[in-house]
Each structure stands twice: as structure tokens, then as C-alpha cells.
Design goal:
- The protein is mainly alpha-helical.
- It folds into two domains: 6-224, no CATH class; 239-510, no CATH class.
- Helix content is 62%, strand content 4%.
- The protein has a three-stranded mixed β-sheet. The chain has a two-stranded antiparallel ribbon with strand order 1-5.
């Protein structure tokens, strides 16, 4: 194996070794055998993972691919691991901390993916919960050491995560005590149940203490200027895209794209309520009882039924969908942070792909016309098809490609491309559903503008099509004002989104930029093949490449 397929052997060995060093990632990826442990978040733990990555990068650099398939795998592996090393050396990996991305979030969310059926499952949860206090103590040391080197997030990020912690631990809001609620009512035996309750209490206390550490020690050391600057932003953008952008050109394109989408929204609104503005059409839809769903469980069931129906429609007609992927679960998340997200299946598909809805406090009614396109994005033909097919292709992809490689521009770009595709295929024939899709597209275009604008502190164009503060320099306050003007969401969600962009530079534009590159790749394939172009075959060949950076993707698709 090593001699015949050297790149695959290096990548497979790396995936196995990394799972052992990072049990949280192993659970997220569905790699069995590590669910009783937490990841070592101490400086030594980070150092061990960084050393493993450097060694694998050097080995793959020296390897010669055996064929075209291994060439694609090697390109992806070198691009991803090379950026990991670069990010680490820039002091960004250990200090990464935001309202959506940190070791704290990974530790909390991993329990959502663990089985809660039977004594063995609860024994794994007990072992993992028992490790929480020490792991958080180690994480404190890492964050403090990085702060001593000047590697810190913005002060706002620490403060906002501290608030999230208070919600997770039952100190604020209606979400309850996450760990106590997790173990309550388990089917474990009496002794195990007592252990679970004791360790859950300790874990809750450790999280609460960590929240105070964030407020008392990290927030005062955080950056007051939330803009990360060009060097940091350019590196982060490459990490999320796997491509090098002309940031000014992309910023200008964002303005053009938002104007195009909002013009389309105006035309679509006229179909819903002739002569109306977009806001008037939205108010008309929101006031229609037939377009509302009352109750969280009822909304979850609506999502499940639509996801199942769409999957059945797509299979064998527009996509080849392997049997193990023809199952998706829609679930309500156990927290109330807000947002919808997808988690992939386990390696053996015993854990299915799942679409999660984290419902904010107080939300009990839902607008399905807004979320039809979300189900397509998270389910089929979006993330569930993409991630599931990648995990299934053992005949074409090594283990690292199937399970570990994730590039936001590739994955989120595909999911936005999938939304547009479903419109092309006639699944958004109801103008209300199309308006929901366009509203989401406009939201993604607006954040291209403010993410680049805020972090690079660019000038707002004097001739911008919306007359928005012409000639002024972007600030977080202006970013929030702009999103409020162009996004039809509840205000807490908009505030969270802007905080997320400020703490996760470069990620938000990856959706629209990725979609743009997917559309360009499809158009180039059409031009090359002419009458021989087959859309279904293009999708199959593209997804069979697995997740990879957008520059390697374009190169690989050009060779198909």
C-alpha cells in the first residue's frame, strides 16, 4: 500500500494519528474509539498536534503521486496542512476564540453527537464529562500564555462567550443547565447515574468558572480594535477559501452582487403582492397564518418532511445518491444560541447526517417560506449530499479526504450553489419560497462587504448603490447598521452575526465567493464540452473529488 499509493498511505496515517491526539475532532468526524476522552488543550497538547502536522506535510511533500487521483489528494493535503502550519506559526491557532469557534464550543457541542442509549454509551459520556474540569484548566493556561505573547482576540469576543456560558450553565436565559439536563433521566444504572450527576455538576461549575475567567482575565487583555488588519485577514481568507483573493476586487463585487440580488427581490415581491416593496411583501407573508408554523417540534417535523421528500426526488434523477446517505435527521439543538447547522454521518453511517436548529429564547412561531432554501442548503443537494457522498467514496478518496478535509469556500459555496440549482430545477416556483432564497443570498452578499470592509477598515464607496454613509470608513457600528438595513432577521440574530464576523475574519465571505467559483467551474465545463456536457455527470465528478481548496478545485475540474 505504501509503495503503490504513497500519498494515500501518508494521509490515512495522519487521520488515524490526529484522531488519537484530538478526540473531539474524532467524534465530530465519526471516527470510533475516542469518545471517552477530551482533547488536550494545554500548550503541550497543541504542540503535539502541530508537530504531527509538520511531519505529515514534509512526508507528503516528498511523496510522488501514483496517478491523477493521488495528485488531487496530494494537492489538497499540501494546501490544507501548509495553511495549518502557517496559521500556527502566525500565533493564530492556539489563540483562536470567538462567539462561534473555540475549544470551549467544541467541548460543549461534542456531547450533542454522542449516543445516549444503553449503559456503555452513558459510561463514555461519564468519562468525557469527568475530564471537563482539567481540560478547561489546561485551556486557561494556553489562552493566558498566548495572551502573554500578544496573541489575543478582540475583547468583545471574550465578553460575548462569557454570556453564552451563563446561558449554557443555567445562570441566564431559559436554556437550563446543559450538563445537568444531559444526564437527567438517563437509562443508566443507579451507580452510574449517581456518577453522571456528580460529574455533570462539576462540569457545570468548571464552565461557569471559565466564563468568569474570560470576563475577569481575558476580556481586559483583548484587543480594543476589532479589525484584524490586512495580513491576518489575508491568511484567514486563504484558510477558509483555499484560494488567494484580490480583496479589493471581491469587496467591489460584493456591492454589485447585493444590488443584483435586491433588484431580483423587488421583482419577486411584485409577484407576491403587486406594486409592493420587499418589506411590504414580507409583511404580507408574515401576516398570513397559512404561512406560519406554531411550535418548535412542529417546525422540526416540517423540516424533516421536506428534507426526506427532497432527498427522494433528487435520488436517481438529478444526482446519484448512495443508499447509506438516504437518511437525514432534523433535530432541535439543546442550546438556544441561534442558527442552523449540519453535522456529518459517522464513518460507518450508524450515526446519520443531521440538520440542527438552535432556536433562540422566545421563538415559538416560524416562517417556512424563509427556510425552504435552508433545508436545501443543509440537506440535499447541499451539505448532506456533499459530505455524505465524500464519506461514502472509499473507492476514490483516502480517509483524510473523506473525513478530515473541510474547506469552507468549497463546502459552503457548494451549499449556496445548491440553493440556486434548486431554483433552476423549479423547486422554488412559489415566489414566497424564492424570496426566502434571495433574502438568504442577499444576507451572504452583504457580509462579503462588511467582513472585508470592517477588518481592512476600507472606505465605503462614495457612489455605492444604496447611498450608505458614502466616503466613511467601516466600523463595527456601521457594519451593524448596514446588516439591519439589508437583512430581514430579528435583531438579536443580526447582532450575533456581526459579532461572529468580527471574531471569525474571512469565514463569512466564503459562502458567496465559493458559490461564485462553483458557478464559474460549471460554466467553464459547459464551454469545454459543448453538447456533450451532462449536468448530473458534472456534479458526480465534482463531488467525487472530495473537499479541497478552491484553487485546487478549479485545477482538478479543468482536467475532468
Amino acid at each position: 500500500m505504501t509503495e503503490q499509493r504513497p500519498v494515500d498511505a501518508i494521509a490515512d496515517a495522519y487521520a488515524e494519528a490526529y484522531a488519537a491526539l484530538d478526540p473531539l475532532t474524532a467524534t465530530y468526524l465519526g471516527i470510533a474509539g475516542h469518545d471517552d476522552k477530551l482533547t488536550d488543550l494545554s500548550p503541550d497538547g497543541f504542540a503535539a498536534r502541530e508537530e504531527l502536522t509538520r511531519k505529515a506535510l514534509a512526508d507528503a511533500t516528498a511523496a510522488t503521486p501514483s496517478d491523477e487521483r493521488e495528485q488531487v489528494a496530494r494537492d489538497a493535503f499540501l494546501e490544507r496542512l501548509g495553511l495549518d502550519v502557517e496559521t500556527s506559526e502566525a500565533g493564530l491557532q492556539r489563540s483562536d476564540f470567538s462567539v462561534i469557534s473555540s475549544g470551549l464550543h467544541e467541548m460543549r457541542q461534542v456531547f450533542d453527537l454522542m449516543s445516549t442509549e444503553g449503559e456503555e454509551a452513558w459510561s463514555l459520556i461519564r468519562a468525557r464529562i469527568a475530564a471537563v474540569p482539567q481540560t478547561l484548566q489546561d485551556y486557561r493556561i494556553t489562552l493566558s500564555e498566548e495572551a502573554n505573547k500578544g496573541n489575543v482576540a478582540a475583547a468583545r469576543q471574550y465578553a460575548e462567550v462569557a454570556t453564552q456560558v451563563r446561558h449554557w450553565t443555567g445562570q441566564e436565559g431559559n436554556g437550563g443547565d446543559f450538563f445537568a439536563d444531559l444526564v437527567k433521566g438517563s437509562d443508566a444504572g443507579e451507580a452510574l447515574q449517581a456518577d453522571l450527576a456528580r460529574h455533570a455538576q462539576a462540569a457545570t461549575r468548571a464552565f461557569a468558572d471559565f466564563g468568569m475567567f474570560l470576563e475577569d482575565e481575558m476580556e481586559p487583555r483583548g484587543r480594543t480594535n476589532e479589525a484584524v488588519g490586512r495580513d491576518h485577514y489575508a491568511l484567514a481568507s486563504r484558510q477558509f477559501l483555499g484560494a488567494t483573493l484580490d480583496l479589493e476586487q471581491t469587496y467591489a463585487w460584493g456591492w454589485e452582487e447585493l444590488k443584483r440580488i435586491e433588484d431580483d427581490m423587488a421583482a419577486t415581491s411584485d409577484l407576491i403582492l403587486p406594486g409592493s416593496s420587499v418589506d411590504e411583501a414580507v409583511a404580507h407573508l408574515e401576516g398570513d397564518p397559512a404561512r406560519r408554523i406554531a411550535g418548535r417540534e412542529e417546525f422540526r417535523q416540517w423540516m424533516q418532511e421536506l428534507a426526506d421528500r427532497t432527498l427522494a426526488d433528487m435520488a436517481g434523477t438529478h444526482f446519484d445518491i448512495p443508499e447509506p446517505i438516504r437518511r437525514i435527521e432534523c433535530r432541535l439543538a439543546p442550546t438556544n444560541d441561534g442558527g442552523i447547522y449540519y453535522t456529518g454521518p459517522s464513518e460507518d453511517f450508524t450515526r446519520p447526517g443531521r440538520m440542527w436548529w438552535s432556536v433562540p429564547d422566545g421563538i415559538e412561531e416560524f416562517s417556512p417560506w424563509r427556510e425552504v432554501t435552508t433545508v436545501f442548503h443543509e440537506g440535499v443537494p447541499g451539505h448532506h449530499l456533499q459530505v455524505g457522498q465524500t464519506a461514502y467514496r472509499k473507492d476514490k478518496l483516502n480517509r483524510w479526504q473523506r473525513l478530515m478535509c473541510w474547506v469552507s469556500g468549497h463546502g459552503e459555496g457548494w451549499a449556496l450553489y445548491a440553493e440556486r440549482l434548486m431554483d433552476d430545477l423549479g423547486y422554488l416556483a412559489d415566489p414566497a419560497d424564492k424570496l426566502g432564497m434571495l433574502d438568504g443570498q442577499g444576507f451572504r452578499a452583504a457580509r462579503v462587504i462588511i467582513d472585508i470592509g470592517m477588518h481592512l477598515e476600507l472606505e465605503i464607496p462614495k457612489d455605492n448603490p444604496f447611498g450608505f454613509h458614502p466616503g466613511e470608513t467601516w466600523t463595527p457600528a456601521l457594519g451593524l447598521e448596514f446588516m439591519r438595513q439589508h437583512c430581514r432577521m430579528d435583531d438579536p440574530t443580526i447582532v450575533f452575526e456581526v459579532n461572529r464576523y468580527l471574531g471569525w475574519p474571512g469565514q463569512a465571505p466564503s459562502y458567496k465567493v465559493g458559490e461564485r467559483i462553483w458557478l464559474e467551474a460549471r460554466d467553464e465545463a459547459k464551454a469545454r464540452k459543448g453538447a456533450d456536457f451532462d449536468l448530473k455527470e458534472f456534479h458526480r465528478a465534482a463531488l467525487d473529488l472530495g473537499s479541497l481548496g478552491l484553487d485546487p478545485l478549479k485545477a482538478a475540474l479543468a482536467r475532468i
